[in-house]
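Entry 14. Ran structure prediction on the chain below.
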Amino acid sequence: MQPGRGKEEHLPKSLGNQPVVVIGGGIGGLVSALELACAGLEVIVVEKEQNLGGKIRQINCAGHGVDSGPTVFTMRWVFDGIFANAGSQLEDMLKIEPLKILARHAWSKSERLDLFANRDESAKAIEDFAGAAEARRFIEFCEQTRKLYRALEKPYMLSQRPSMMGMMSDLGPTGSKALYEIGLFNDLWKSLGRYFKDPRLHQLFGRYATYCGSSPFQAPATLMLIADVEMQGVWAVQGGMIAITQALTDLARAKGVRFICGVNCDEITQHNRKVSGVRLSNGETIQTQAVIFNGDAMALQTGLLGEANRHASPITQTTRSLSAITWSMFAKPSHHH
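Output, structure tokens:
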């Protein structure tokens, strides 16, 4: 089911008197619950924390709420579709403002670089920072990431079940050429090296791997398309990213979604190798034939939700990706904020 796409043909028409249970109240779980409720199904969301939102959260710094998870709001058209499908409008639920400056980067007190929503402004900033040759290569990089985004949007990003074989058949000559040009089987770091000779810029654009918790030395070069996503717009959300969580929660509740917070899911029970229910840490069991698990797939494979569910989501990669340490602080905003 794709967000904002309405009622999908493969959704069950009826589950009897049983609800769909969504395990995990992150953004994926909230959107899933909302979409299912809009399709006429009863939905219960189970979240082990007291607060919804998953990685989206705030901490208090000097009396101010500071985002301590995701801070970048992009691809607003996806949310436009989600809200429209629920009979609402994004502007009615959230106050957002497009940002002229996408991000500010610093290596030392005298080495700072701003990237802008406008490509030419970014190129001028890069020229002043690292020279005309780097600026020219940045323009080439932007042109390549635009081709890449266009090539992968339909067969991969909007696909229900993307696969390498299906993607290659849908790409066509233009899309295949775009993948070949970036080095389909190269890692992100190697492909970026073709465009950026200044080590600072090479490092800066390698950060796109962190969007999915990966290392630029191992992540695929296709993640370069994130640069194009950012240049299509970054928005500031009034009240912080947690306002997105609240808006989705309010919409879901209005559609009849029930939330159970502060309770862990101990087991997804089965009968005749089919889902039969969800057993909670408070002793309650919810009878259901359908579960959406919006959590770490490793939890399934390691048996945390029951031995019978170990093979529900096969995983070949078991090593952990990188970790990050972040500092959250309250500072005086620059004038453009």
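Confidence is low (pLDDT under 50) at residues 1-11. Will compare against last week's run tomorrow.
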